[in-house]
Amino acid sequence: MVVLDVRASAIATCARAGQFVMAVPPSAGATSVALGIHDVAEHCLSLLVCVVGSRTLRLAALHPGETLSLFGPLGNGFDLSGHPNDVAIVAGGAGIASVLLAARALLRAGSRVRLFYGAATAAKLVDRERFAAAGCEVVVATDDGSEGMHGFVTDALARATRADLILACGPTEMLRATAVVARTMDVPAQLCLEETFACGVGACWGCVVRVACESGVEYARVCREGPVFLAEDLRW
Fold it and tell me: Is the pTM for the entire model greater than 0.90?
């Protein structure tokens, strides 16, 4: 993974925790990539790029002084208005990109924040230092046991003391498991879904998920009504 620091004051000044941008790599035409907003500082924002194909490779290869087209901020973001005393943040793999702003905001408000961070191997654990430096308690789990707890990060969450609120971002199976832990502990959870967006603004309806509604179940667009949903509302 590569962290890109981009000067984009219009986005940085209004970005909320859990929102994302659509980024167009140089020479990629109109083909864009959805990236969670990792951090903001003055007129700049940080984007965490996980290289998985040609478009993300172009982004990761950008040099200082080059330009990048961004559209955002997009999505609803996390709701941090409840003033929780103790918050557990669960991140899996590239999901770490979307939770740092939430951690910073909660710490500024006086909350205790614990980051439960999981990845396949120790080599894939990235940018933990920013969380620790901000004041988070960091718990690590790896699938192969190369660092931290050997196993899934949701197992570490299940063994921890109860929080007032759970926030999570990562692979779908991790989010499902987080929802189960939250239900077992009777803790509200907000899940930031990872999705590959075609448009990012809800026009194509290519990123729908089933959610509960008054009449039963309806389809919501992850990019428009999400990417953050209440765990109790999702109908996987």
Answer: yes
